[in-house]
Please model this.
Amino acid sequence: MVYPQMLKEYLEYCKYRDNYFKNGKLNLANLRWFYPSLTLLLREFIVSMNVSNFVYPSKGNITDYFKFICNPSSISTSGSSMPVIEAKRMDDSYMEHIYKIAFSGKFEERTAVQNDIKYIFGEVVANIDEHSKCSKSFFTAQHYMNKGFFEAAFLDNGITIPGTFKQKGILKDLKDVEYIKKATEGISTKEGGGRGHGLPSICKIIKDMNGDILIVSGNGALYINGTDKYLKEDMVYSLSDSLKLGGTLVSLRLHMPINPVDFYKDDYL
Model:
C-alpha cells in the first residue's frame, strides 16, 4: 500500500517506538529529518517513558535541531521553526511568531490568510480542551521553504476521538477510523447531540486553502487531501494495536501560496 507522506511520518515513529520496546534503546541514528508530527511524537515518548538510553541522529545539524525544537524556552522571533509549546499557551504572542514563520515577511500573503490560520488553530485547541480529557497537549510548526509548504502539528494524550464516542455511547460498534470520519462529518459528542462544527469546518477550510490534514487517534487514521485533484475520497486506515496512538495527533500541511478563504462568508461554520 502507498501511504501519503504525512502518514509515513507517523509510521516511522511507530517503528522507533517498537524498536525501543524490543531493544531498550531509542536509536535515531538513521533519522535524516524531523517534520512537526514526528518531533512531537518522539519528544512526548522520550518524556513520558523517561527514555535515557537513546542515540541521537548521526547528522549533527539534525541533532542540534531536535534539541532546539524540543526546548520550550527557545522561542525566537526569527527562523523557520516553532519550538514545542503547550497547546493551551497559544495566545496572540505565539500566533504572531507563527505568522512570521509561515509568511517570512510577505505582508500581503499574511494579511489574506492569518485570520484563517488563527481560526483553525483555535478550533483545534478548543476541541482538545472540550473533548480529549488530556493531561498534556503540545504544538509545533515549521515552514519548509525549499519544499514549498508550512506544517503544524498538535498532539494530546487524551482519551482519543473514538474513546469520546465510546464513553458517551454514541454510534456503537464502529471501527476507530469510522468514529474519526464521523467526527469530521459533524457528528457531535456534546450533550444534547446535534452537529459539531469545529472539526468539519477545520477540514473543509484546510482543503480549500490548498492543504492536507492527517488525524491519528486510537486505532484509526484519516488523511484528507486538498492538493491532489485526482484524489477525490478521504483516505482511511485501520491501525493494528502495534500502531495504536494513545491520544490524538492532528497534523496540518499548507502548500504555498496558501489560498485564502472567507470562513464567515463561505458557509464553513
Q: What stands out?
A: The first strand starts at residue 26 and ends at 27. The CA atoms of residues 33 and 207 lie 26 Å apart. The domain at 79-255 is CATH 3.30.565.10 (Heat Shock Protein 90).
